[in-house]
Write a structure and sequence with these properties.
Elements lengths: L20 E10 L2 E2 L1 H9 L6 E2 L11 E2 L4 H7 L7 H17 L11 E6 L26 H10 L5 E4 L5 H14 L5 E8 L3 H9 L22 E9 H6 L6 E10 L12 H14 L8 E3 L6 H15 L7 E3 L2 H4 L6 H15 L1 E2 L14 E2 L5 E2 L4 E8 L3 E8 L17 E10 L2 E2 L1 H10 L6 E2 L3 H7 L6 H4 L1 H6 L2 H17 L7 H6 L1 E5 L5 H9 L20 H10 L5 E4 L5 H14 L5 E8 L3 H11 L4 E2 L1 E9 H7 L5 E9 L13 H14 L8 E3 L8 H13 L6 E2 L2 H4 L6 H13 L23 E7 L4 E7 L11
Parallel strand pairs: 5-6, 5-7, 10-11, 10-15, 11-13, 19-23, 20-21, 20-22, 26-27, 26-28
Antiparallel strand pairs: 1-2, 1-8, 1-9, 3-4, 7-8, 9-16, 12-14, 15-16, 17-18, 17-24, 17-25, 22-24, 25-29, 28-29
Helix pairs in contact: 3-4, 5-11, 8-9, 12-26, 13-16, 16-19, 23-24
Amino acid sequence: MDTDPQSAAELPYGVGGDRRVAVTGLGLVSGFGIGVKPFWESLSAGRSALRPLGTVPGSVGELFVTRVDDDALAAATAGEPVERTTAMLGVAVAEALADSGLATPIADGARHGLGIGTCQGMFHADGAELPLRADRHVVDMYTRPADEVARRFGLRGPQAVISTACASSTTALAWSAAQIRDGRAEVMVSGGAESLCLFALAGFHGLRATSPNRCAPYTVSDGMSIGEGAAVLILEEWEHAVRRGATILAEFLGSGMSADAYHPVAPDPTARGALAAARRALAAGGLGPERVDYVSGHGTGTANNDAMEKEAMILLFGDRVGSVPISSVKSAVGHTLGAAGAIEAVASVLALRDGVLPPTAGAGGALDDRIDIVPDLARSARVEVVLSNSYAFGGNNASILLASPTGVRTRPRLRSARERAVLTGVGAVGPTGTGHAALLAALAGGAPAPARSTASAEAAEAANPEPVRPEQVLPALWRRMDDYTRRAALAAWEALREAGIDPRTDDGPAEEAALMFATAGGPMRSVEEFGRSLSELLVPERRSSFARTTMTSAPGTLGICLGLRGPTITFLSGGTAGLQALDHACALVSRGDVPYAVVVACDEITDAVLDAQTRWWGSGRWADGAVAVVVESAARARARGRRALAVVEGTGQAGGADFRAGRVADPAAFTAAATRALAAAGRGPREIDWVLAAGADRDRAEAQAELHALAGLFPDSTPIGHTRRRVGETMAAGGLVDAVAAIAAMRGDLRLPADGARFSAGVDSTPVGRVLIGTVGCGAVIATVLGAPDGGAGVVPR
């Protein structure tokens, strides 16, 4: 059991942010076969793994795709019956860990974490009905591959599933590197995995984004070709790698992210967002564009994306653009969606290692004489710095900067002294009503939540009395939003209003401001509707509905509505996603990377989701809705004359747990997460006045394990309560619901009635000074310590 704060202490926000990050292992599964070697040999030779798929159900038509050989995958998994995405990810992780020289399973994995990107999770080519059937495990559809891998290999450090569409695994790599830079982990296993999926095939074909031929990025540009695969990189703290004698393949210099805030699907043709992401990655790495030797392009083969990417490179490199080679490996392995960025990162590391530039296979067509596209065959070159770019639905842009381990030495970016992250605004939309005041009334009312409760976006819209509402900013956009996105928009708008921020008139900060989005299942009503309409995709009005099924749809639309163009990430980590999004927002603010961040957690309950949750957990009260908070530094809040609601003192994460239905849950993960949160906050258990636990049903195994862990860590006098019985289980939003309750308790505005011994003990009307919040997913636990500003007076600490 990991109970020693010093052995797994998470550094406070803004501390330790200049640790170097090494790449020490690679693993890959692609249409070329199992392993990095067949991929690199085939790619360098200019081969393509794209093959004709033929006509498939749903009137998709003729397409070229890549598919991993079934027999080869079965052999790599020793014939065990493993779900396909999980199997590919596990094979890639095993190869990467072996390549890095790390023995598995990890004996003491508290400082070894996992960051995985995916779009479709456990959807497969025959799984169009997957989100509609409770017996197909809707509950952990997106998190199971990561959870299984973490358990198998003993990874018990920070764990996240990220879904920023086609930029998912690039974003996961950036998040994972941040865990190392900030002292959260010594080793991060990071990458992405995606199975060939009828859902995505039909969706992109319905958008007329697929090519009738093998895709030819940057030349023919008549559409994309979909593929499947998995890729994993072992990221490691530099000195840790050196001490154990690891072979360092590359250095992860930095990353940059941005949002277009332009269109739900199409990229901004001015390349404003793509350029910002690349410049931020270069700034993070301490280099200028003149140091880049090769660009691993996103290169989907669609006309809009290819044109935008060319424009971004021209703007970034200026007169030098013709001498900076660029290529896209999607022409060889297809567009693997959530895995694409990681596959391209592996190719980038191999380019650095071997001095070989991978080609754009079968380029065809006329080359653009403005830029240097590497066509058909690999090219030998001196390569010391590689910029790898990913772009996605919702205007999500992500770039990472990799360098030779021996050729580049940069000066770390100077960082300001540690800045406290504070909450200055909250907002909520749920079954209890519009606004966080309605949420607090439900918490204080004492009546238990029904088995299922649904938030009405229409009622929320009508109840909003403010003179300026989000639907009045961009009315055409508001009309196209589904209920899921409207709830998120209303919650975000309330939080910004309370914080005194109007992004429409605050152009400078909004250009850099972050949007951290959290969900456990995403827009499930839109997913189910699209799944039912697969056979009708040739009907024109159905084509656009696919875009609303992606995890980037709501945050991308919010970015447009609010004008936020800074880093944007969607955390898809189940019940822990809300606190995970808050944690990363605090890290960005404390490091001075962004002026402020809007954190939104949103989920919705459908009949299928309710059935699946009941099958999975056996009982519970489920609710949909959205909660939002605004995070900024204490210094910025003071300068604006704003009162802080709470100080976010520290967060602890623990992965690799097993909370699957029917299992006896281990309390170790709860103890580890709480211990790490206390260490990050610099607090002891006796300094916590109230604990808000995740477990709402004491009969469930994970609730019993949580209570056991918390009771063993905190004094008997510390009340342990929960909010779920009052407002329902809001999944990803649960942690932020608890944050709203904690803020009210700090101000003395909330008193929860006692309803059972120590678990759910009452809180009197005396303001509390510090609260620990816990959340649990299917395989991970996160705990966060919130403190009252200046002892509860609402004054921002200095």
